[in-house]
Amino acid sequence: MIEKRGVTNRKKVFEELQKRGYGNLYVWSDAPGTFYNWHIHPYDEVRWILEGEITIGTEEGTFTLKAGDVMRVPAGTKHWAQVGDSGVTYVCGTKIR
């Protein structure tokens, strides 16, 4: 579910995610302290961190992602997110099975 890729170049991230079959790609930023309560997505989702830090919790555990980290969230996975003190910028994508 988590990969330590180390890549933070937006163009390379978009290219890699497109190769993996992800669409609807966009860059999103959240301010420090932003919190998303428990929720699910109807499709497979990916978050590739470009800058900053975010912690994502699932029923399987809690994962802190930093620049260059990638997290795949399968459709229907219940999860929450908490942004770190410096905020976060990441690439979001969706894969429809």
Concise summary:
This protein has 97 residues and is mostly beta strands. It has a single domain (2-95), classed as Jelly Rolls (Sandwich).
What does this 3D model show about the protein?
With about 100 residues, the protein is mainly beta. It has a single domain, classed as Jelly Rolls. The protein contains one helix and seven strands; from the N terminus they run βαββββββ. Strands 1, 2, 3, 4, 5, 6 and 7 form a seven-stranded antiparallel sheet that branches. It starts with a strand and ends with a strand.
Give the secondary structure arrangement, pairings included.
Blueprint: E1 2-4, H1 10-19, E2 23-30, E3 35-39, E4 44-58, E5 61-66, E6 69-73, E7 79-95
Antiparallel strand pairs: 1-6, 2-7, 3-7, 4-5, 4-6, 4-7
Give the beta-strand count. Answer: 7
Helix content: 10-25%
The number of helical segments is 1
CA gyration radius, whole angstroms: 12 Å
- Silhouette: globular
| Uncertain regions spanning at least 5 consecutive residues | none
Mean pLDDT: 96
Summary keywords:
97 residues, 10% helix, mainly beta, 1 helix, 7-stranded antiparallel β-sheet, Jelly Rolls
